[in-house]
Write a structure and sequence with these properties.
about 325 residues, four-stranded mixed beta sheet, UDP-D-xylose:L-fucose_XylT, three-stranded mixed beta sheet, Nucleotide-diphospho-sugar transferase domain-containing protein, Spore Coat Polysaccharide Biosynthesis Protein SpsA, Chain A
Length: about 325
């Protein structure tokens, strides 16, 4: 999902990292992840900008949610500042974006498509899809805001205490129980509409906790992605290191400055994605700076993004159904 501001500052970097990951199509042609990635513009101006960017990245611009929020005539100047005052945290438009999120996911799940949803203020270092179909067996996965050793390949029996989910990364298999749980999420959001607590992420936590109690493990399993692999600025400037960097690092991106430009290679080697979350940095260009910072450090100390052999594996969720070709420039 994207408004004008994110399309003008963070989305280009996100798409650039997707371009570095080569993938095989069902007919054995090779393309890159950006050219088969779907963006959902949330305003009419966002749709216009999205289509203008297609010539560079080849992504898809999916219609149907472009009236979620009003256009803001957002611009990004040479100082990297973007106008996002109309989508500030817990503003009316911010809450409307949450309603659009579950609408988009339900649309795809009810059509029978497994769905990997990612916020676009992320840098993608490794193609996550092959592992989601090999290592990870649960029906539904989410990333974490917390930094801890919790990487549940087979899912969990109950929602763990003191684990904060981050729905900036969600992987959902198109099963009946998963769709039912997402509908519960929608109902929970609708029940709290107009209240100060109508936040999609907190309501997701509540809905999934209740859903897991009702369905039990034999019907649906929920898992947590590694907070070291799918890491974020919520854990600190170097993401999560459950092995134990000093605690001062884990302060939502404001950690010890000695690590800001010198993240340990052993930590970076684990990165599959770095999410610049817990940080309202559109307005001052901070999100873009953090994205560029982690890209530069990774390529300097680990190697080129998309250079691993596993990044060149065929993408297992594609079928002969060419629906996505209607919206992308895949070649």
């Amino acid at each position: 999902m994207c408004g004008e501001a994110s399309l003008l500052d963070v989305a280009p970097i996100f798409l650039q990292t997707l371009q570095k990951h080569k993938v095989s199509l069902p007919d054995n042609r090779t393309t890159d992840m950006a050219r088969v990635h779907m963006l959902f513009p949330l305003s009419l101006d966002a749709m216009r900008i999205c289509k203008e960017m297609q010539g560079v990245y080849g992504h898809g611009c999916i219609p149907s949610f472009e009236d979620t929020i009003p256009s803001s005539s957002a611009t990004v100047g040479p100082d990297g500042k973007a106008n996002i005052t109309h989508t500030l945290f817990m503003s009316t438009n911010f809450i409307m974006i949450g309603f659009a999120k579950y609408g988009i996911l339900l649309n795809l799940l009810t059509l029978g498509y497994d769905t990997l949803f990612m916020d676009n203020d992320q840098v993608i270092f490794k193609n996550p899809v092959p592992s989601l179909y090999t290592l990870y067996k649960a029906d539904l996965y989410g990333a974490q805001d917390t930094c801890r050793r919790l990487d549940t390949h087979d899912g969990v029996l109950a929602y763990p205490d003191r684990v904060t989910i981050n729905i900036g990364v969600l992987f959902a298999r198109a099963t009946g129980p998963v769709t039912r749980c997402f509908m519960n999420w929608a109902f929970t959001m609708q029940d709290s509409a107009g209240t100060p607590v109508c936040w999609d992420q907190s309501k997701f936590h509540a809905a999934m906790t209740l859903c897991m109690k009702g369905l039990q493990y034999n019907h649906m399993s929920f898992g947590f992605l590694s907070s070291e692999a799918f890491t974020s600025l919520c854990a600190g400037v170097c993401g999560c290191d459950a092995a134990g960097l000093p605690r001062i690092v884990w302060r939502g991106g404001r950690g010890d400055k000695q690590y800001a430009d010198n993240c340990p290679p052993r930590v970076m080697k684990k990165w599959a994605a770095f999410h610049v979350a817990c940080f309202a940095g559109h307005a001052d260009g901070g999100k873009v700076r953090h994205m560029k910072r982690v890209m530069e450090q990774y390529e300097k100390h680990v190697g080129p993004i998309g250079g691993l052999p596993e990044d060149k594996q065929p993408m297992p969720w594609w079928t002969s159904d060419p629906w996505w070709k209607n919206f992308t420039h895949a070649s």
